[in-house]
Amino acid sequence: MSAQELDRAAPTVQVLLLQLDDGLPPPTYAHPGDAGADLLARVDVTLAPGERAVVPTGVAIALPRGYAAFVHPRSGLAARHGVTTLNAPGTVDAGYRGEIHVNLVNTDRATSVTLHRGDRVAQLVVQRVEHADFVVVDALPDSARGAGGHGSTGGFAGRSAAPGTNIGAPASEGDSS
């Protein structure tokens, strides 16, 4: 199957878009098959080292019920400048109709970063989501992982757990994790 055939086979969902700033283009995908559409900064913003800002994008959307959009960081912005998103991914629920904002932070310890109006600052990924029917039970069924989390599978030899945690601690007898 060719790349063009693969692109045509990809499912799409219609998302209604309200452009709140006619001077900016709508979100677009940089390449065929990309998961995230680029969100642009509606204003100039300078982030000092460690500083965060809520940056407007100039767009609002209406998603169909059963979908959500997720605001993800841009890898190049993070790798080159240390700028990433807080609360990542940020969730845009189907019922939200306000302007999408991006919570940005400059993680660089020494250098300020200036982002200009029209710069790509995040990616918007639209996904189908299920609505959970939470059922209260007295106990959960066993699983191969059990209650192990936050580093329970290892990966960093020679590091001990932070005081007051069981991260990296060996499983106790009878523990199914």
Write the layout of secondary structure elements.
Blueprint: H1 3-9, E1 16-19, E2 37-40, E3 45-47, E4 52-62, E5 67-72, H2 75-81, E6 83-85, E7 90-92, E8 99-106, E9 113-115, E10 120-128
Antiparallel strand pairs: 1-4, 2-10, 3-9, 4-8, 5-7, 5-10, 6-8
Account of the protein in words:
With 177 residues, this protein is mainly beta. The protein is 8% helix and 31% strand. The protein is built from 2 helices and 10 strands, in the order αβββββαβββββ. It is globular.
Strand content: 25-35%
How many beta-strand segments?
10
The CATH topology? Deoxyuridine 5'-Triphosphate Nucleotidohydrolase, Chain A
Write the element-wise H/E pattern from the N-terminal end onward. HEEEEEHEEEEE
- Placed side by side, the strands forming the largest sheet appear as 1-4-8-6
Q: What is the CATH superfamily label?
A: Deoxyuridine triphosphatase (dUTPase)
Q: What is the C-level CATH assignment? A: Mainly Beta
Overall structural class, as computed from helix and strand content, comes to: mainly beta
Helix residue percentage:
under 10%
Arithmetic mean pLDDT: 89
- CATH architecture tag: Distorted Sandwich
Quickly count the helices: 2
Shape, principal axes of CA atoms: globular
The N- and C-terminal alpha carbons lie at a distance of: 43 Å
Structurally, the number of domains stands at: 1
> Nearest-angstrom radius of gyration?
21 Å
Low-confidence stretches: 172-177
